[in-house]
């Protein structure tokens, strides 16, 4: 059924081209999904359902003014055309009431982009059988979501982009009888029963450690290993303006010192916006082709994410970033530490599976604060001793990924966005784990 989405979008695009008046310019965005959702509790299916939906975003431009409206689409092409014409009529009424936009900058290139990633989706019966076989005796709570995602873009200048990709995302927790939990995730575009079983087996092993007496630590600096899921929380914080051209130009980026050349990260750190091959489309919501960018190379700031609006406001070159200028496919280069050797190299310190409730405690210093949660363990002489009571950390990125960074793992984890607010998202991160010689716990 997903193969019918592109003809629907093309039909809508054709109707819009026929309806615009001389002097009007437009951009048309399109978003669709066909998803299966399953909610598990105690490793049993408690709720299952399918979602098939599509929507469009129409922007009308004339005489330096712009206005935008979103509307839902259905299965009736005639009704969809009527919704398009209604949106167009409302935007024509709105435009004369608006001032000219001084930073309006449309991409006038007639670019074309086409990507269809149709890797076979997991067989649903196989997923259920694996959950029953591998976790039938556990209190597993989670959500499984899978199906094709589609994104489209067209403009009056002749640009046309289409992106369609299959993906799955299984996000779950295993609960111990004492109320503590291990959080885990398996996501991607190519399903492997073996890889899923490995993730589940690791979570089961960590669950057993949660049964040991909790260990309370005093505030201080501790040697620590941050698993990819914990690194994803840190990477997500950097998306809040860290690489944004607008934030950097106005002095509001947490990586201001890095981009100004006043600070460096470890030479082990290389960060890219790796759009090619990712779940994200190769074009932005503003209507420009996306490209792979090297944001940080061996600890030094390089490129930044520049939207068309920031390019116009600060006299920069746009590079396909969305309006919010956050990474859509963040990739941290791997290191040389084997996952099997993590505990040995950690020696004595913290094994942190997840971080929680992060925020900036000092944004100019890239200092973050948050909580350890979901299977944080105390390790002594390479052996897990027991779970650590939830504690707050407060430390700077320039420490964690700077002079305190000892190693990154050679294996990385692909983490897809679990957000389903309004629709499933296409954002992702590809991250290794990190071994640091000091993480500051405050209480």
Provide keyphrases for this structure:
single chain; 443 residues; alpha+beta; PmbA/TldD fold; 2 domains; eleven-stranded mixed β-sheet; seven-stranded mixed β-sheet
Plain-language structure description:
- GO terms for molecular function: metallopeptidase activity.
- Residues 219-441 form the Metalloprotease TldD/E C-terminal domain.
- InterPro entries: Metalloprtase-TldD/E_C, TldD/PmbA_sf.
- This is TldD/PmbA family protein.
- Pfam families: PmbA_TldD_3rd.
- The chain is of the alpha+beta class and 443 residues long.
- It has 2 domains: 2-201, PmbA/TldD fold, CATH 3.30.2290.10; 220-441, no CATH class.
- It contains 10 helices and 18 strands.
- The chain has helices at residues 5-19, 77-94, 124-135, 193-209, 228-238, 245-249, 256-260, 308-314, 342-346, 397-403; strands spanning 25-41, 44-62, 65-73, 112-117, 139-155, 160-175, 181-188, 220-226, 271-273, 293-297, 300-301, 329-332, 349-362, 367-380, 383-387, 392-396, 405-416, 428-441.
- Strands 8, 9, 10, 11, 12, 13, 14, 15, 16, 17 and 18 form an 11-stranded mixed β-sheet that branches. Strands 1, 2, 3, 4, 5, 6 and 7 form a 7-stranded mixed β-sheet that branches.
- Helix 1 (5-19) crosses helix 2 and helix 3 packs parallel to helix 4 (193-209).
- The longest helix is centred in the N-terminal third of the chain and has 18 residues, at 77-94.
- The protein is globular and about 75 Å long.
- The model has no long low-confidence stretch (mean pLDDT 95).
